[in-house]
TrEMBL record:
Family assignment from sequence similarity: Belongs to the NKG2D ligand family.
Record's keyword annotation contains Coiled coil: no
Keyword Oxidoreductase included in the entry's annotation: no
Domain MHC class I-like antigen recognition-like: 28-200
Purpose: Acts as a ligand for KLRK1.
Subcellular location field: Cell membrane
Domain of life: Eukaryota
Annotated InterPro entries: MHC_class-I_related, MHC_I-like_Ag-recog, MHC_I-like_Ag-recog_sf, MHC_I/II-like_Ag-recog
GO biological process terms on file: antigen processing and presentation of endogenous peptide antigen via MHC class I via ER pathway, TAP-independent; antigen processing and presentation of endogenous peptide antigen via MHC class Ib; immune response; positive regulation of T cell mediated cytotoxicity
PANTHER family linked: MHC CLASS I-RELATED, RETINOIC ACID EARLY TRANSCRIPT 1E
UniProt-recorded name of the protein: MHC class I-like antigen recognition-like domain-containing protein
Annotated organism of origin: Spermophilus dauricus
GO MF annotation list: natural killer cell lectin-like receptor binding
Topological category with respect to the lipid bilayer: Lipid-anchor; GPI-anchor
Length: 225
């Protein structure tokens, strides 16, 4: 009976270790979706952000009030840790930077008749401790326009009307370095910290509601579908 008990205990321990190893080695992603307007309207914020780990939303952020709201189990699980405070500070700074980029864009006459809206999606992906890719996808007034493959420092034009913006941003070393640092450095760090608190992690990588194929050695930009 003692031998049976020991065997059952060891088997359970091995199974637990295998489950934890699968969680660690699985492919996971962190996505932050920014929607930025040049100015706020009554009852609306000039910038809103939604964050998701794999396909599950875990935070909403309002740049106007500088308030971050936890969503779901993961959001409430991590809203008291240091990473949560770091995310709050970063979202505020990035929101302001993206707003300045939007105000600096001279596309009103080319792409829109009224004030522009800029959507920016930052995503990073990990498999175990390996960085599989980091991307920025930019849409202007809902039109996919540019993609920045951070790992290869490559800009891809999706909308021909954004070609001038692509050339301007590509030559802006300060901007590209900022995007690279946040997505490859901070994003991967936050994802690792968040995964420590993530109990159920799907095996497929999904950002928001958009499914993507698993990335292994990305060489070109992967715009959001």
């Amino acid at each position: 009976q003692n031998v049976c008990s020991i065997f059952c205990y060891v088997s359970s321990l091995i199974l637990l270790l295998l489950v934890e190893a699968w969680k660690t080695l699985g492919t996971h992603s962190l996505c932050l979706d920014f929607t930025v307007k040049p100015q706020s309207r009554p009852g609306e914020s000039w910038c809103e952000v939604q964050g998701s780990v794999d396909k599950t939303a875990f935070l909403q952020y309002d740049c106007e009030s500088n308030k971050i709201k936890p969503l779901g189990h993961l959001g409430w699980e991590v809203n008291a840790i240091k990473t949560w405070t770091q995310l709050n500070e970063m979202l505020k700074e990035l929101g302001q930077d993206l707003r300045m980029i939007l105000l600096d864009m001279d596309l009103e006459k080319k792409m829109a008749r009224g004030p522009l809206t800029l959507q920016a999606k930052m995503s990073c992906q990990l498999e175990g401790n390996n960085d599989l890719g980091s991307f920025w996808n930019f849409s202007i007034d809902g039109q996919p326009s540019l993609c920045f493959n951070v790992m290869h420092m490559e800009w891809t034009v999706i909308n021909p009307r954004a070609r001038g913006i692509k050339e301007k941003w590509e030559n802006d070393k300060e901007l590209t370095e900022c995007l690279r640092k946040v997505s490859m450095g901070d994003c991967n760090h936050w994802l690792r910290e968040l995964l420590k608190h993530w109990k159920e992690m799907p095996s497929r990588w999904e950002c928001g509601q958009h499914r993507r194929k698993r990335l292994t050695t990305p060489s070109t930009c992967s715009p959001a579908q």
